[in-house]
Write a structure and sequence with these properties.
The chain has about 325 residues and is mainly alpha-helical. The chain has a domain of about 180 residues: Helix Hairpins. Helix content is about 75%, strand content about 0%. α6 packs across α7. The chain is globular.
């Protein structure tokens, strides 16, 4: 009997703090995922790094043997200066001297990567004034970009996601949850095709030294705003229509980022994902809310009723795929 009582108390304890246990497992899972990624990347990339280091040592030794008049210290000073310039996007190679990093189209591309927080790192401000302006420009521009993207996605998702799902639910009587899942999968497939596979094929043709995998890698790294900077289009020697090409890439990044946000918002509105997310959130205590309301004696009955009505409206707005428009228009379509 004592064991059963202890078991019941343990069950009640776990149920009472279920959100905290789920959050603890979430943190542990995230840390394990970080360690897993570090182990895989280290095991895969470390041998290639070792081979590259050995190759550079051989090239350096061979170069010094062929040019005995040049000391190793002079060579290292020259290489150090070249690498510093390369970090700022300036190359001393003959096949790269024709491309300017700060013409209008390149600066427009740089501004788009800053505001979208992609930040390839291949081009950075050289002057102190440019660095100071970049800080001020980013402080204002990044929240402005978030506001812009939120407003655009909020309008697009009404026509792309909510209305189509509601139409199939009302017009054909399908389950809203099933329609929402099928719609999210189809929308994700279309987005991946239009903003990953097709652009990857285009980049593999436009960029001479890129294959399809490298092009797809660039699309994913860019639209996920990771922006490693190891692959940047339009930086090749004698790139055809470079200005127009840079503007096209800028438009592609903005449109692709909007499409990715629309897909993510569509999946986040699925009821199953909402339930899964709530497992890790802190639950509100209803008793504390009631005590908080009672303690505020200055609140009038009308203000409390208005607050309750606004809470009901917020709950309805948070439900998946709910539109503000009444369903009479769809009823008219059914009668017709």
């Amino acid at each position: 009997m004592l064991q059963s009582l202890a078991g019941c108390s343990c069950v009640r304890l776990v149920e009472r703090h279920r959100s905290a246990w789920c959050f603890a497992f979430l943190v542990l899972g995230y840390l394990l995922y970080l360690v897993f990624g570090a182990v895989v990347f280290s095991s895969v990339e470390l041998p290639y790094e070792d081979l590259l280091r050995q190759e550079l040592r051989k090239l350096k030794r061979r170069f010094l043997e062929e040019h005995e008049c040049l000391s190793e210290q002079q060579l290292e000073q020259f290489l150090r200066r070249v690498l510093e310039a390369s970090n700022y996007g300036v190359s001393v190679l003959g096949n790269a001297s024709g491309n300017w990093n700060w013409d209008f189209t390149s600066a427009l591309f740089f501004a788009s990567t800053v505001l979208s927080t992609t930040g390839y790192g291949h081009t950075v401000p050289l002057s102190d004034g440019g660095k100071a302006f970049c800080i001020i420009y980013s402080v204002i521009g990044i929240p402005f970009t978030l506001l812009f993207l939120t407003a655009v996605v909020q309008r697009i998702i009404v026509y792309v996601t909510r209305r189509p799902v509601l139409y199939f639910h009302i017009r054909w009587g399908f389950s809203k949850q099933i329609v929402a899942i099928i719609h999210a999968v189809i929308l994700g497939f279309v987005t991946v095709s239009c903003f990953f596979f097709i652009p990857a094929a285009v980049f593999s043709v436009m960029e001479d030294d890129w294959n399809f995998l490298e092009s797809f890698y660039f699309c994913f790294i860019s639209l996920s705003t990771i922006g490693l900077g190891d692959y940047v289009p339009g930086e090749g020697y004698n790139q055809k229509f470079r200005e127009l090409y840079k503007i096209g890439i800028t438009c592609y990044l903005l449109l692709g980022l909007i499409a990715m946000l629309v897909v993510l918002e569509t999946f986040c509105e699925l009821r199953e994902l909402k339930r899964f997310r709530k497992m890790f959130y802190v639950k509100k205590d209803k008793e504390e809310d009631q005590v908080h309301i009672v303690e505020h004696d200055q609140l009038s009955f009308s203000s409390i009723s208005d607050q309750a009505a606004s809470m009901k409206e917020d709950e309805k707005a948070n439900e998946p795929f709910v539109t503000v428009q009444p369903a009479t228009s769809y009823d008219g379509c059914i009668n017709n």
